[in-house]
Amino acid sequence: MVQTWRATAKAERRERYLAAAAQLFAARGFHGVSVEELGAAAGVSGPALYKHFASKEAVLAALLVEASERLLAGATAVVEQESEPRRALDELIAFHVDFALSEPDVIRVQDRDLASLPEEDNRRVRALQRRYIELWTQVARRIDGHVPPPVWAVRLPAVFGLLNATPHLPKGRPDDVRAVLAGMARDALLGAAARPASR
Questions:
Q1: Structure pTM?
Q2: Fewer Cβ within 10 Å of end Cβ, the chain: N or C?
């Protein structure tokens, strides 16, 4: 029981570090934040960070690797649970929109500080991202198999760029933002094939 409580408390402290890191790195960049500032934002002393992470770089790695793992796990679940490709694509878009709206700090850090990761962690994040894109590609090609692979290789990163623009969006009603982003993503991916047939 005591061991379980300690493990839970340790996990909660780790999550506080990662939340503080996302906010601070997003606001000032990875290199603009000290270990002491990370600790203060998490409500502990700076050196206490080393009980959870080997270095500040390890904090950045955990933040970006875990975000990529969550995205891949969520997309995998969608593809496994929804066999109809159009519905699967809608679910993938909705899933990514929810992530983008709930994690704008992580997206900003990813855009700006991925290159600050140690090489091994950088490769791991990029490998996870490639697998994520592959899942989307499989679903999209089932909807429109006539689109050549090089076109999907352009469309998909462009759509992720659109969806990941959430840190720069004006404040508004979340439901409206979700609908607008989802519609734009669907149109950008499938073009005329995304629209209902005219009667």
A1: 0.86
A2: C
